[in-house]
Amino acid sequence: MFKLENRVKEYLQFLAQKGFNLGEDAVGFISFGQHYTGATDEIVNVAIEITLKAQKEFDGSFFISLLEMLKENQIQNRKQAYQFVEERNIMS
User: Fold this and answer.
1) Which residues contact 63 (CB under 8 A, 6 or more apart)?
2) Does 61 reside within a domain?
3) With 60 as the cut, is the pLDDT of residue 1 above it?
4) pTM over 0.90
5) Residue 49: domain span
């Protein structure tokens, strides 16, 4: 089993304080996705945020696909990630 990085854990705790409690299955997808793609904590966190905004809930397959797209397109920060999803109409 993969371990979550500290900044990702902190972000999940922040979300829980805001009422977004993600279950163990979601945490498993997040952990797997980060290790599978080699994404930074910042990119993982923004992918979680975009997933929740686009899907209105956590969708593991959407999250993994988004992480893969961000990695393939060499997205390195939050601003680039939002520009990327806006250009592709990923969020309605």
Assistant:
1) 29, 30, 33, 47, 48, 51
2) yes
3) no
4) yes
5) 23-87
* Total residues found in the chain within this entry: 92
Alpha carbon distance 91, 4 (integer Å):
26
Tell me whether residue 72 is in a domain. Answer: yes
Q: Return the sign of the alpha-carbon dihedral for residues 52, 55, 58, 59.
A: negative
Quick: pLDDT tens for 10-59.
999 999 999 999 999 999 999 999 999 999 999 999 999 999 999 999 99
* Greatest alpha-carbon span in the chain: 35
Q: For 40-73, b where at least 16 C-beta lie within 10 A, e where not — what string?
A: bbbbbbbbbbbbbebeeebbeebbbebbebbbee
Task: With a cut of 70, say whether residue 77 has pLDDT above it.
Answer: yes
CA dist 9 and 81 (Å) reads 20
Per the structure, the count of domains in the chain is 1
